[in-house]
């Protein structure tokens, strides 16, 4: 039996990066069970991912001064822009990480006339929230489950048969038409060397060495990313270099066809989880592994999770020599790929 669409136009907000938006997918699907329309409010870095989420009817984008990595100044014009974008929304479900506050957005949505707002807030929200979901932030819960809990607090449940995994819209593009028939399912390993923060990045020369050793181990290797100089260096004439060549949707299709993805804690790792591809996760512990590990797919985690940078949330490594990841060897990556492909 289908639930009635009795909650009107519902805004779901997650204002940071692509991976965070993908992890909001289960919450979005829960909201969609009762919303007449789901509007997703993303930051610029999350827009493409938001458009891939099942259940999203429309995406609007706004750069939040309290979340964006290069924050714009706070201005009346910026506030008025957001208010115009969300005009006509009946209800909002605000999704945040443990280190973010939902209250600035809640204030602006109140000024826009949104009648019902749900969010996590351990700070007193006054009249900014109608449903205040309080959590124990000392307990590390996977981000996908944290956000689904907010949707449930607002009165939205996943539809019957939905187990709460990550997902993308189907169908994905046929990348074989553009990049060649060698991109058949499971025929290659994808290496994605870039991340959104230097503190989460395995050294480029280690990536290059791992690509060479993976090829020597009998794997066809594909290198992806937006930084063309980096992907060309890592590919090293041994791997197929797709640097700068794919849209986000095409990247999803390339990763879906792979046997394994090798990547840091970055959006493509969560994209792999959404398309069911195992991950070798080069994970720097600047944020908790328990919250941001690839969700719901087989994975091997490499990196010292007890390094001095643990829990620092640093974007640039605060420890000389970047020991959490620099000690990971290419041999370990090859071994992890073997484990996930045998």
Keywords:
six-stranded parallel β-sheet, globular
Question: What does this protein look like?
Answer:
This protein is α/β, with parallel strands linked by helices. Helices cover 33% and strands 15% of the residues. It has 14 helices and twelve strands. The strands form two sheets. It has a six-stranded parallel beta sheet with strand order 3-2-1-4-5-6, with helices on both faces. The longest helix has 13 residues. The mean pLDDT is 95.
Briefly summarize what is shown.
With 342 residues, this protein is α/β, with parallel strands linked by helices.
Topology record:
Blueprint: E1 9-14, H1 18-23, H2 25-32, E2 37-42, H3 47-51, E3 58-61, H4 76-85, E4 91-94, H5 103-111, E5 116-120, E6 131-133, H6 143-153, H7 175-179, E7 189-192, H8 204-216, E8 221-223, H9 228-235, E9 240-241, H10 248-256, E10 260-264, H11 267-275, E11 279-282, H12 289-292, E12 299-302, H13 323-326, H14 330-341
Parallel strand pairs: 1-2, 1-4, 2-3, 4-5, 5-6, 7-8, 7-10, 8-9, 10-11, 11-12
Helix and strand content put the structural class at: alpha/beta
Report the total helices: 14
- Which radius of gyration do the C-alpha atoms yield? 20 Å
**Strand arrangement in the largest pleated sheet:** 3-2-1-4-5-6
Low-pLDDT residue spans: none
Characterize the overall form. Answer: globular
**Percent range of helical residues:** 25-40%
Number of strands: 12
Hey, roughly how much beta strand do the residues contain? 5-15%
Average of pLDDT: 95
How far is the first residue's CA from the last residue's CA?
41 Å
H/E series, N to C?
EHHEHEHEHEEHHEHEHEHEHEHEHH
